[in-house]
């Protein structure tokens, strides 16, 4: 369908890639991969015809249609969601208008026997059949299915697009693109603004209903579920693998090992040749051989080893100090904007050292609860308690966009670094692949992934014991994500991760909080345990019969005919529910006592510090009243510490 021949792209006379050739065939599912800045987005723009290459040809057949979804786009705010999505069917509306015009002519004309009239009938019949084949009469149902698949409710269809966030408006653009059914879909990071359910719907759509697809994504699970071919851009060249991403990783490793062996052999050959030239350069009898070796050296085509593997991103979150046992306790927390309730009756306790995931559709309150914890939102109801000595490090969704674009990479970090760390800024930047001249780049020329890495460095310089990461993997390449995942896993403190990246959360989160319908539900286990449970719940919901469940006789029906067992079940379930309710009440009471003790400890320690500072002055050293007060506070602190220890032990026992 699309043929790429001898493609070359240069920026400031520096080649991004050159001599690139490949073909996109019908039904191809291609993953375009490579490190940040390798030229993936540039390649998509060239295929879409938005950007021209320095040289080379991209041959696209005249009848071939291309749909392109960029990472960032300018969006219109003039229509409702449904009206905007229906723009995908403009060609059908034009065809419908044309058919109506022809129908009107057929009704008005009277030259029934003329050749022109017969031609008009034939054209009307042909266009009408084509209109019906293209789904002209049921396009609205297709629009509704697609919008709902991408997370919109029916109530949203008539809302103006201006009421939605940038992420939701990107979904509308994606819906329009999918509805047009182009021959080739070019998608640049399509999952960045989608939740897990919408990603799964998109996976199914692309796998079963789309034509050719070329996509850039750093979501490993998404790539594995959609693509069957992987094209890697590295060292200015491309390598084409006819396999999905996981198999590509294995083959790539083998290729790099072959590269290394060939590189080492070539370096040995070059070294031997250079030594021969140097040894016999000034001997007349060897002049011919020396000249021959010099020419031989000039003709050698130097082997390059993949640049991506020459530098490594090394992340280490240092836990500043030990926090209390329960960094976050929420009791009946609720937040609403006017009449719109975001969530209500949120009761959760996060233990020290836990790594939990916040998941759910966009707009269900994940980031809102995070902002409540951060004290950025204070007008919520209920009680939200932060534990003793909790020091929070926060990475927001838009953290990378908040950087000052006019500063250099070095200056960005230099402004936040304090103390001895300022002497090590160059080393830190080098560890994050900003070594050498890269540290002098302006922020405005950095790619999305490079900005995210820079924002992550700023977070690393903060001494914290509680990390809150809101979509930290957006724009990060695969290797950077793997290293970030490893750093979070090794972090001794507590972590909340808001993410839709299943592969990133797998093996990292041990507890999942699901946001939806104004509620926050706790699920023990990893992300795939949660998704499996959700799938089973969805299937069970489909299988339930309302008439059967509401029928009194239905309760007595049991497989195997043992009716007595079914009748006894409700009382047993009710009893266990009551017991669980009592246990939860007791746990909440103990958690409150622990939180109160931690708050009192913190206040008492602060008061003791103030007294000790006064006692260290010449005037305070002779003030006996200060010493007496100091002794009282120490005794009070010991008492509270004993109570805190006893209640904590009691709570631990109750949890078992």
UniProtKB/TrEMBL annotation:
It comes from the Bacteria. PROSITE patterns: ABC_TRANSPORTER_1, ABC_TRANSPORTER_2. Residues 573-614 form a coiled coil. Keywords: ATP-binding, Coiled coil, Nucleotide-binding, Repeat. Residues 2-260, 328-542 form the ABC transporter domain. One of its GO terms (molecular function) is DNA binding. Residues 542-571 are annotated as: Disordered. Transmembrane segments: none annotated. SMART domains: AAA. Residues 545-568 have a biased composition (Low complexity). PANTHER family: ABC TRANSPORTER ATP-BINDING SUBUNIT, DRUG RESISTANCE ABC TRANSPORTER,ATP-BINDING PROTEIN. NCBIfam families: ribo_prot_ABC_F. Belongs to the ABC transporter superfamily. ABCF family. YbiT subfamily. This is Probable ATP-binding protein YbiT. It comes from Bacteroides stercoris. The gene is yheS_3.
């Amino acid at each position: 369908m699309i043929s790429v021949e001898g493609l070359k792209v240069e920026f400031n006379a520096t080649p991004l890639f050159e001599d690139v050739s490949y073909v996109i065939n019908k039904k191809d599912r291609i993953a375009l991969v490579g490190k940040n800045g390798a030229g993936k987005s540039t390649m998509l723009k060239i295929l879409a015809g938005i950007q021209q290459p320095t040289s080379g040809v991209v041959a696209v057949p005249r009848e071939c249609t291309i749909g392109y979804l960029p990472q960032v786009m300018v969006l219109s705010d003039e229509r409702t969601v449904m009206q905007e999505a229906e723009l995908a069917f403009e060609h059908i509306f034009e065809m419908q208008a044309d058919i109506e015009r022809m129908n009107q002519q057929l009704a008005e004309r009277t030259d029934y026997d003329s050749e022109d009239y017969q031609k008009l009938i034939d054209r009307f019949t042909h266009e009408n059949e084509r209109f019906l084949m293209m789904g002209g009469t049921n396009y609205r149902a297709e629009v509704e299915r697609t919008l709902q698949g991408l997370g919109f409710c029916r109530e949203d269809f008539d809302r103006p697009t201006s009421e939605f966030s940038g992420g939701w408006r990107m979904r509308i653009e994606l819906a329009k693109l999918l509805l047009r059914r182009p021959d080739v879909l070019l998608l640049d990071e399509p999952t960045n603004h989608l939740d897990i359910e919408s990603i799964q719907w998109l996976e199914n759509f692309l796998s079963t209903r789309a034509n050719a697809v070329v996509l850039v994504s750093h979501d490993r699970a998404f790539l594995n579920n959609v693509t069957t071919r992987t094209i890697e851009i590295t060292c200015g060249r491309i390598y084409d693998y006819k396999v999905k991403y996981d198999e590509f990783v294995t083959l790539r490793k083998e290729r790099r090992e072959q590269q290394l062996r060939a590189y080492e052999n070539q370096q040995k050959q070059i070294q031997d040749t250079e030594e021969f030239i140097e040894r016999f350069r000034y001997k007349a009898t060897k002049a011919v051989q020396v000249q021959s070796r010099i020419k031989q050296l000039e003709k050698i085509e130097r082997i390059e080893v993949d640049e991506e593997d020459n530098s490594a991103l090394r992340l280490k979150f240092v836990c500043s100090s030990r926090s209390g046992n329960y960094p976050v306790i929420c009791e009946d927390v609720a937040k609403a904007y006017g009449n719109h309730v975001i969530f209500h009756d949120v009761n959760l306790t996060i233990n020290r050292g836990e790594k939990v995931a916040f998941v759910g559709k966009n707009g269900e309150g994940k980031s809102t609860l995070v902002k409540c914890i951060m004290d950025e939102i204070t007008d919520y109801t209920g009680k939200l308690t932060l534990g003793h000595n909790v020091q929070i490090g926060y990475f927001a969704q838009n953290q990378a966009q908040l950087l000052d674009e006019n500063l250099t990479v070095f200056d960005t970090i230099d402004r936040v670094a304090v103390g001895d760390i300022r002497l090590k800024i160059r080393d830190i930047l080098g560890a994050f692949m900003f070594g050498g001249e890269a540290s002098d780049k302006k922020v405005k020329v950095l790619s999305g992934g490079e900005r995210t890495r820079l924002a992550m460095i700023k977070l690393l310089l903060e001494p914290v014991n509680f990390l809150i990461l809101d979509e930290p993997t957006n724009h990060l390449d695969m290797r950077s994500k793997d290293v970030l995942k490893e750093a979070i896993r090794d972090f001794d403190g507590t972590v909340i991760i808001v993410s839709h990246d299943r592969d990133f959360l797998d093996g990292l989160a041990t507890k999942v909080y699901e946001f939806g319908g104004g509620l926050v539900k706790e699920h023990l286990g990893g992300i795939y345990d949660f998704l499996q449970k959700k799938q089973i719940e969805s299937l069970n919901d489909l299988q339930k019969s309302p008439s059967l469940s509401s029928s009194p006789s239905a309760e007595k029906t049991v497989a195997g005919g043992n009716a007595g067992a079914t009748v006894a079940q409700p009382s047993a379930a009710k009893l266990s529910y009551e017991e669980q309710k009592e246990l939860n009440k007791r746990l909440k009471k103990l958690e409150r006592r622990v939180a109160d003790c931690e708050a009192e400890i913190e206040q008492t320690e602060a008061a003791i510090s103030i007294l000790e500072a006064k006692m260290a002055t010449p005037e305070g050293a002779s003030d006996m009243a200060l010493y007496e007060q100091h002794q009282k506070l120490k005794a009070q602190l010991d008492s509270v510490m004993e109570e805190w220890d006893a209640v904590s032990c009691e709570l631990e026992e109750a949890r078992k």
